[in-house]
TrEMBL record:
Residues 7-182 form the 3-hydroxyacyl-CoA dehydrogenase NAD binding domain. Coiled coil: none annotated. It comes from the Bacteria. Gene3D superfamilies: 1.10.1040.50, NAD(P)-binding Rossmann-like Domain. Keywords: Oxidoreductase. InterPro entries: 3-OHacyl-CoA_DH (IPR022694), 3-OHacyl-CoA_DH_NAD-bd (IPR006176), 3HC_DH_C (IPR006108), 6-PGluconate_DH-like_C_sf (IPR008927), NAD(P)-bd_dom_sf (IPR036291). Residues 185-281 form the 3-hydroxyacyl-CoA dehydrogenase C-terminal domain. It holds the Pfam family 3HCDH_N. This is 3-hydroxybutyryl-CoA dehydrogenase. Signal peptide: none annotated. The keyword Repressor does not apply. SUPFAM superfamilies: 6-phosphogluconate dehydrogenase C-terminal domain-like, NAD(P)-binding Rossmann-fold domains.
Length: 282
């Protein structure tokens, strides 16, 4: 197992920010990298707010909050991303992820390259870099500081010590790691596709309203109705995942991405992160 002291989280959006908080809270020196400085500022203030909430609830002490913040560095310079392990949570585009991994490997030989992708084949990402044995899927759920599950996705080439290191890391972050095969959508996103797509079909076919579908599913026991969940996830990310899973499975009719969701993406109504999705947020 590799000794991990410094973790670099790439992407400071919905997922990257939560994962950086987890990393710092688990005691690791944490570098948060994003190409967008405004996202880094937003992530820093979001993490501070979350830690303060934990202090107010007496879940951590004010000293622990301070120590946690001291372990965090925010940067938009790739040259500062010297780490033992990387967790990337940037946009859901294969070329963006492989390009980033190649650059990180060049400055960090031997680094473990974990990807938080929801749907891109880990094997394809691994094959694009010079050290495929160091590439692994580490798929957190939203919101990362709260959700207990982490899917750990291995390929035929993943080094067993990389798997052990990532499973240990998930445990140190308070998560339950489940080993998954590198299949389209892994496990959760494969099952969940129908939750989103069937809900949008009902609305597209004028059979129910957004509010009705959400209310019924929540009353049935789901924590969030499908439309509220898509707003939380981010419409662009969810739509990309739908397309990638659909294409990887040979474009089955039942998994055809939704026109309604495409319209939302085209309109820039991405959900909570833009203030408007299926619902409006202030
Ligand atoms: N949103 C979810 O619910 C969810 C859940 C699990 C996994 N994921 C996965 O996590 C990843 C990130 O999703 P998100 O919802 O946090 O996205 P997001 O849109 O909230 O944030 C993405 C961030 O990546 C940054 N970025 C883009 N290109 C970059 C690059 N080349 N280098 C560094 N930073 C870059 C952007 O500036 C942005 O801040 C995706 O792969 C997604 O599939 C998302």
């Amino acid at each position: 197992m590799k000794n991990i002291e410094t973790i670099c989280i790439c992407g400071a959006g919905t997922m990257g920010s939560g994962i950086a908080q987890l990393s710092a809270m688990a005691g690791y020196q944490t570098i948060q990298f994003d190409v967008n400085a405004a996202m880094l500022d937003k992530s820093r203030s979001g993490i501070e707010k979350n830690l303060q909430w934990l202090v107010d609830k007496a879940k951590i002490s004010p000293e622990e909050k301070q120590q946690c913040l001291q372990r965090l560095v925010f940067t938009d310079e790739l040259a500062n991303c010297s780490a033992d392990l990387v967790i990337e949570a940037i946009i859901e585009k294969k070329e963006a992820k492989t390009d980033l991994f190649k650059k990180l490997l060049a400055i960090n030989p031997g680094v473990i390259l974990a990807t938080n992708t929801s749907s891109i084949a880990i094997t394809e990402i691994a094959e694009a870099v010079a050290a495929p044995q160091h590439v692994i899927g580490m798929h957190f759920f939203n919101p990362a500081p709260v959700m207990k599950l982490v899917e750990v996705i291995t390929t035929a080439q993943t080094d067993p010590s990389v798997v052990n290191t990532v499973v240990m890391l998930a445990a140190k972050m308070g998560k339950t790691a489940v080993l998954c095969k590198d299949a389209p959508g892994f496990i959760v996103n494969r099952v969940a596709r129908h939750y989103y797509l069937e809900a949008m079909k009902l609305v597209e076919q004028n059979l129910a309203t957004i509010e009705t579908v959400d209310t019924i599913m929540e009353v049935s026991g789901f924590k969030l109705g499908p439309f509220k969940l898509m707003d939380l996830i981010g419409m662009d990310i969810n739509y990309s995942v739908s397309n990638i899973v659909w294409e990887a499975l040979g474009k089955p009719e039942r998994l055809t991405p939704s026109v309604l969701q495409k319209q939302k993406v085209d309109a820039g109504e991405l959900g909570r992160k833009t203030g408007k999705g299926f619902y409006a947020y202030s």
